[in-house]
Amino acid sequence: MLRKINYAVGLFMLGGTMMLQAETLPGEGVTVIPVQSAQDVESFQTELIMEGLRQLGYEVASKAELEYATAHVAIGNGDATFMAVHWQPQHNYFFANAGGDEKLSREGELSRYGLQGYLIDKATAEKYNITNIEQFQDPEIAALFDVNGDGKADLTGCTPGWPCERVIEHHLDAYGLKDVINHNQGSYEALMTEVFRRFEAGEPVFYYTWTPNYVSAALVPGEDVVWLEVPFSALPEEQDADTTMPNGKNFGFIANTQHVLANKEFAENNPAAARFFESVFIPGNDINAQNYRMYQGERSDADIDRHVKGWIRANQDKWDQWIADAKAAATGS
Q: What is the tally of structural domains in the chain?
């Protein structure tokens, strides 16, 4: 009888050891430092990646807030670990300046088909038959969007230091629009609040935006506003490419993909995290919808945490597979 008890205890202890081994996670003992721009609409993507890393056993530090150029350098130097919203090719300039492929990793696609460009309200577009930004060379057309009374069109543009700033300024030069368009810059969200106010008041609006983003959920292209085309492709040299889309439309920007940007040494030393970064994919419409909920007031940390966990539940099978694949990568299986 004693032998049976000892045998059973031995099996229990062996089973407990096996369970502990099975519960060992690839990220245990490793701390990661996320970075994000000041745009809280990127919190959904960032927090979702953070949650996956936690489930892989990593200790995830609080997010550091850095603008894109500084964030790329910090990640390249190892002062930060990853950024969830790296745009390719729009962030190529920052990528190259921070060490490029020698210091940085951007495998996989977090999201795709990110459009950017200039929009005006549909009512003014139809009344004056405005379809192309080149038409703003006509002072009478430009004056329709004059907000401050100087006769120039007021473009709600890009936050200083963002890569879109370089493209917009390049466009204004290339299309001969410097004398007829003011590129108004500042906090993008604050500027767009004024655009929404003017639109609701029935006034013309002229602004830059990108997708996925809450703006196109608030002002729906094709219903409330229309995209303006550009007369020809013209991008800064690090992005130089034909911006004409397969349907023949040309909005002046290349359709971007979003990637998780990571420190290359970290990615090489942490195959589980690298595989997770590579695997996660969020449809653009899901980001639009979440960002719009934030625009409507659901933007506290608790709200975003709820959005993240709700998205994971709605995509549980895919999520579980991403986590399983990441764990497998850590063992080389």
A: 2
Domain limits for position 165: 116-239
On whether both 174 and 266 belong to a single domain, the answer is no
Q: CATH number of the domain that 52 lies in?
A: 3.40.190.10
Residue with tokens 């991403």: 322
Q: Which tens digit of pLDDT belongs to each residue from 63-111?
A: 999 999 999 999 999 999 999 999 888 788 899 999 999 999 998 999 9
Indicate yes or no: pTM above 0.85: no
Cβ density class 195-226: b for 16+ within 10 Å, e for less: beebbeeeebbbbbbbbbbbbbbbbebeeebb
Domain assignment present for 18: no
For the stretch 107-124, what's the b/e string if a residue is b when 16 or more beta carbons lie within 10 angstroms of its beta carbon? ebbbbeebbbbbbbbbbb
Reply yes or no on whether the pLDDT at 227 is more than 70.
yes
Within-domain flag for 7 = no
Domain match, 93 and 134 both: no
Do 126 and 179 lie in a common domain?
yes
Token pair, residue 226, equals 């229309």
- Tell which residue, 95, 26, 25, 44, has the closest CA to residue 263: 95
Q: What is the pLDDT of residue 23?
A: 64
Bridge partners, 229 (sequence order): 132
What pLDDT score does 22 carry? 55
Whole-Å CA distances, 24 to 17, 18, 219, 262, 275: 11, 10, 48, 24, 18
CB atoms within 10 A of CB 169: 16
Q: Residues 234-247: pLDDT tens digits?
A: 998 766 689 998 88
CB 313 within 8 A of CB 319: no
